[in-house]
Design brief:
Layout: H1 5-13, E1 29-33, H2 41-53, E2 57-61, H3 64-73, E3 78-80, H4 89-100, E4 105-108, H5 116-131, E5 135-138, H6 141-148, E6 159-161, H7 165-174, H8 186-193, E7 198-201, E8 206-211, H9 217-223, E9 232-237, H10 249-269, H11 282-305, H12 309-317, H13 336-344
Parallel strand pairs: 1-2, 1-4, 2-3, 4-5, 5-6, 6-7
Antiparallel strand pairs: 7-8, 8-9
C-alpha cells in the first residue's frame, strides 16, 4: 500500500529548501534527552541521525555519567551533562528552560533508563516543552514513563509516540484498550484515548494514527489550533525494511521523526515555505517521513551487510569474496542520506547540493 501522494506532497512542502536562503539553525535544532550510566549508544543514534537526515544542530541532554562517552562518539554533537543526580528539579529548571527555548523539537527516551532522577527530569522537560509549544517525540523508557502518568502527555497534539510491539501492548493496557479490537485498529484507539497524540506503531508495517476528537478551548490554546478542530487519519508505511532487527534502530527512527518535526516548526514560524500546511498536520507527516526513511535505510544497510558472520562463512565456503560482516545499527547511519534521496529525490527539496552559498 503506497503512501498517498498528497501525504508525500505535504511532507516535501515542509522540507527546508536547498537554495541558499536559510542560515544556520533554520533547518532544525534538535534536542535529545537521555543518556545515563548504562546507556550511551541510544542518545547517540538518535542525535546523529537527526544530523544525517538534515538537521543543522543536534543537542544531547544527559547525565554527567554518559557525557564523556557520547562526546567521544562524534564531535558534531553538542552535549549538555546537566542531569545531575544531586540536584532538584527546581535547581535544574532554569538551565533546562533556557536550553529548550533554543530548540525546535525535543526527543525524550533514547537511553533514558528508569532511574528515579532521570524520570523526574524527563517529566520536567516534557512539561517545559509543552509550555513552550515545542514538538515532542517520546520513545523507549519515556513511553514507560507516560504509562505511569498519562496526564503528562494526554491532549498534547504536538507529540508523536513511537512504540515497538511490547511498548504498544503495554501502552494499550495503560489506556484500557479492548483486546478484542482488531490489531490494525488499535493505534487509532490509543491515539484517541490519549487525546489526539500521534501514534507510530512499529511493526512489520508501521501504522501511524492521529485521532483527536474536537478540540476544547483549553486544548486549542495548548496546541495552537482552532477550537473544535479534529483529525482522524491513518497511514500505513509498508515499504521494505531490513530483515534483521537489531537494537538501536528505533533510536534512529526517533531522530529522523524529530528532525522532520523540527522542520515543521521552522515552516510554522515562517523560516521558509508558504504556510499552507497547518501545524496540526506536522506530527503525522513527520511520523510518516521518519518511518519511510528509517525503513529504507535499514533495507540498504542489511543488503550490504547481511545477517552476520554466518553469511561471510557460507560465502567463503563457496569461494565468494563478497564478505558481509553482519548488519548493526551503526551501518544504517551512512545510509540515511541515500534513503532520503531514494524517497524524495534530488534537487532543492531532495538530497541535492545547493548551487549557491547560504547565509552564515
Amino acid at each position: 500500500m503506497p503512501v498517498p501522494k498528497h501525504i508525500l506532497s505535504q511532507i516535501k512542502a515542509i522540507i527546508p529548501p536547498l537554495n541558499g536562503s536559510l542560515h544556520k539553525g533554520q533547518s532544525g535544532r534538535v534536542g535529545v534527552l537521555g543518556g545515563a550510566l548504562d546507556y550511551t549508544g541510544a542518545p547517540f543514534f538518535a542525535s546523529i541521525s537527526a544530523l544525517r537526515i538534515g538537521a543543522d544542530l543536534s543537542h544531547v541532554i544527559c547525565s554527567p555519567t554518559a557525557a564523556g562517552a557520547i562526546k567521544s562518539y562524534s564531535p558534531d554533537l553538542i552535549v549538555h551533562p546537566i542531569l545531575r543526580e544531586d540536584q532538584t528539579t527546581e535547581q535544574l529548571r532554569p538551565a533546562l528552560d533556557s536550553l529548550l527555548s533554543r530548540l525546535h523539537v525535543l526527543i525524550v527516551g533514547p537511553g533514558l533508563g528508569r532511574e528515579d532522577y532521570m524520570i523526574k527530569y524527563a517529566k520536567l522537560a516534557v512539561t517545559i516543552a509543552k509550555e513552550q509549544g515545542m514538538y515532542v517525540v517520546l520513545d523507549a523508557d519515556a513511553l514507560w514513563m507516560i504509562g505511569q502518568d498519562l496526564a503528562l502527555i494526554r491532549g498534547y497534539r504536538r507529540a508523536v509516540l513511537t512504540p515497538n510491539v511490547m511498548e504498544f501492548k503495554r501502552l494499550s493496557e495503560n489506556v484500557d484498550i479492548d483486546p478484542k479490537i482488531p490489531p490494525e485498529e488499535r493505534a487509532m484507539h490509543v491515539s484517541r484515548a490519549l487525546g489526539g497524540v500521534t501514534v507510530l506503531e512499529k511493526g512489520a508495517s508501521d501504522i501511524i494514527c492521529t485521532n483527536t476528537g474536537e478540540a476544547s478551548k483549553e486544548q486549542a490554546e495548548l496546541n495552537k489550533i482552532s477550537e473544535g478542530e479534529s483529525t482522524e487519519e491513518r497511514v500505513v508505511v509498508d515499504i521494505p525494511g531490513g530483515l534483521k532487527r537489531c537494537g538501536g534502530q528505533g533510536d534512529i527512527l526517533s531522530g529522523t521523526v524529530g528532525t522532520v518535526m523540527a522542520w515543521g516548526k521552522c515552516f510554522e514560524s515562517g523560516a521558509f515555505g508558504d504556510g499552507s500546511i497547518p501545524p496540526s498536520r506536522i506530527p503525522l507527516l513527520a511520523a510518516v517521513a521518519g518511518s519511510m526513511v528509517t525503513r529504507t535505510a535499514s533495507r540498504r544497510a542489511f543488503s550490504k551487510n547481511g545477517r552476520g558472520v554466518f553469511d561471510a562463512l557460507c560465502q567463503g565456503l563457496f569461494g565468494s569474496t563478497d564478505y558481509r560482516v553482519g548488519v548493526v545499527t551503526q551501518d544504517m547511519i551512512p545510509e540515511i542520506g541515500g534513503a532520503f534521496a531514494e524517497i524524495f529525490g534530488e534537487g532543492e527539496k531532495g538530497w541535492g547540493a545547493p548551487t549557491s552559498g547560504g547565509k552564515l
